Amino acid sequence: MEDSPDPPFEEVYKSLFDSATAAPELSAVEECELPMIDLEELNLGDISRRACKQKIARASREWGFFQVINHGISREVLEKMREEQVKLFAKPFSDKAACKDSNFSAGSYRWGTPTATCLKQLSWSEAFHVSLSDVLGSHDINNNLRSIMEQFAGMVSKLCEKLVEILGEELGQKWEEKCVASTCYLRLNRYPACPIFPEMFGIMPHTDSDFITVLHQDNVGGLQLVKDGSWFSVKPNHQALVINIGDLFQAWSNNVYKSVEHRVVANPQKERFSTAYFFCPSYDTVIASGVEPCVYRSFTFGEYRKQVQEDVKIFGHKIGLPRFLLQTH
């Protein structure tokens, strides 16, 4: 029998499905359209450029998410990236788990939630987590996947730099640190169809532990986010890239820009693909707001990352920025 591309969720997590305790309660949520920003406006003169920057900052304050068009990443690159990603995930699960691919180092493939003790902690998804330094470290120009990952990451990194610069300007500050290849990474995601259970997380609710994230997704849908205390489903737009603020940017902006909780809900009939780029500084970069009174104490990215990993190991979930709040009297 040919090896299936799907991870063995039902076999490995059989006890969770048998007990079906503490399953996610995913009531129907309202669909929303994220703020849409046309980055071409940055090239149309002072008035349009000023208005575009203000829209970017407003969306980052009020939503923590927005979408962009005319973003500088060609349709050809995006379509090729998706095509190669689909080929990659179509490989047998055993090959993916063993990382039998020259593009990826051992440990780059992840699936499910190894620490899950109930269904609401289980992510019905698989992913390749690839450091940008690994993407740029190969010169095998005949490798289609490696080549398109390099093109995609290079273009998206420039987009991140532009957005971070604009958002810093709107705060009256300048982000001096450069994000580096050793800590920035691509995450290639596949969310298999989940027909056996009506309500399942493709990925658990979380915030991103980076500075800013760029997401390219297909039209299947499933991305949801919190706005004003309620969950909303994001309407997919194949022409746009989704941008969201990460924890580091929220701390650096002193809570002006919001790193909001989001999740993916599995689809019972269709698989979903997405590619996320996480824009991160070096581990020794100090995250400190220049605004007083500061909400958070200063910390390094390395310190933050270590704390998140420890909390996930102990509690099964991330605690994040509340760990670094300054004590108030």
TrEMBL record:
<dbReference type="Pfam" id="PF14226">
    <property type="entry name" value="DIOX_N"/>
</dbReference>
<keyword id="KW-0560">Oxidoreductase</keyword>
<dbReference type="GO" id="GO:0046872">
    <property type="term" value="F:metal ion binding"/>
</dbReference>
<protein>
    <submittedName>
        <fullName>Gibberellin biosynthesis-related protein GA2ox6</fullName>
    </submittedName>
</protein>
<dbReference type="Pfam" id="PF03171">
    <property type="entry name" value="2OG-FeII_Oxy"/>
</dbReference>
<dbReference type="InterPro" id="IPR044861">
    <property type="entry name" value="IPNS-like_FE2OG_OXY"/>
</dbReference>
<comment type="similarity">
    <text>Belongs to the iron/ascorbate-dependent oxidoreductase family.</text>
</comment>
<keyword id="KW-0408">Iron</keyword>
<dbReference type="InterPro" id="IPR026992">
    <property type="entry name" value="DIOX_N"/>
</dbReference>
<feature type="domain" description="Fe2OG dioxygenase">
    <location>
        <begin position="182"/>
        <end position="281"/>
    </location>
</feature>
<dbReference type="GO" id="GO:0009805">
    <property type="term" value="P:coumarin biosynthetic process"/>
</dbReference>
<dbReference type="GO" id="GO:0002238">
    <property type="term" value="P:response to molecule of fungal origin"/>
</dbReference>
<dbReference type="InterPro" id="IPR050231">
    <property type="entry name" value="Iron_ascorbate_oxido_reductase"/>
</dbReference>
<dbReference type="InterPro" id="IPR005123">
    <property type="entry name" value="Oxoglu/Fe-dep_dioxygenase_dom"/>
</dbReference>
<dbReference type="InterPro" id="IPR027443">
    <property type="entry name" value="IPNS-like_sf"/>
</dbReference>
<keyword id="KW-0479">Metal-binding</keyword>
<dbReference type="GO" id="GO:0016706">
    <property type="term" value="F:2-oxoglutarate-dependent dioxygenase activity"/>
</dbReference>
